[in-house]
Amino acid sequence: KGLGAIEFWSDKLADKKMIPAIISSLEDDSSEIRKTIANILDRLRYQNFSEKEKIAYLIAREDWEAVINIGKPAVESLIAHVENDDLEFRDYNLSEFRSKFPQPLGNIHDMRAVEPLIRFLRNETAFLCMIDHKCGFENGCIYAMEALSELGDKTAVDAIIECMEKVDDFEVIKVAMKALEKLADAKAINPILEYL
Fold first, then answer.
1. Which residue, among 53, 105, 49, 52, has the nearest Cα to 75 in the 3D structure?
2. Fewer CB within 10 Å: C terminus or N terminus of the chain?
3. Spatial separation of the C-alpha atoms in residues 9 and 187, rounded to whole Å
């Protein structure tokens, strides 16, 4: 960490053969490693990214506005993060980080995101049903429902209803009702009426 890390990586970046290995660490499974590499690249003022590397760098920095500005080329990388989950072996520390990906997907408005977001929402719903203390973990469901309502595909309705019915949380229910209202599918009428 600190100056020692910068000196170490500065030497590595000076050797052009090492650059691909260092840049590839921006897609490491650990968000901490990704952030560390991004910070080091910042302090070294490294800018010679390909488009894919730039997207990985911005995701590591959690610069969602810049990711959204890139637009459709960023969608596949965002989807890969949304789908990188295993409920049985979930790292609770990464749940908050993963919950941030639906928002840029919704803002980019690429329909490739619909099915991955539906799977993500179902996973987050199952996860909330598994734990006793939700405390902050609801954001995954909330952001996914908001993104799906932005995308406007009615195939998301069943997953949103399922989340609303299974997750006993006021904020989740409120966002689900808003999403269902925006999607305007007749099958949502009865579930909404039950909460009025």
1. 105
2. C
3. 56
111-151 pLDDT, tens digit per residue, is 999 999 999 999 888 888 877 656 667 888 999 999 999 99
For 58, phi then psi, to 5°, come to: -65, -35
Q: pTM of the full predicted structure? A: 0.83
Residue 147: how many other CB atoms lie within 10 Å: 26
Mean pLDDT of 42-64: 90
The DSSP call for residue 134 is: -
Q: 120 near 143, Cβ under 8 Å?
A: no
**Residue among 94, 153, 87, 93 nearest 125 (CA):** 87
Instruction: State the helix-helix crossing angle for 170-183 and 139-151, rounded to 10 degrees.
Output: 10
Element at 71 (helix H, strand E): none
Among 111, 109, 98, CA closest to 143? 98
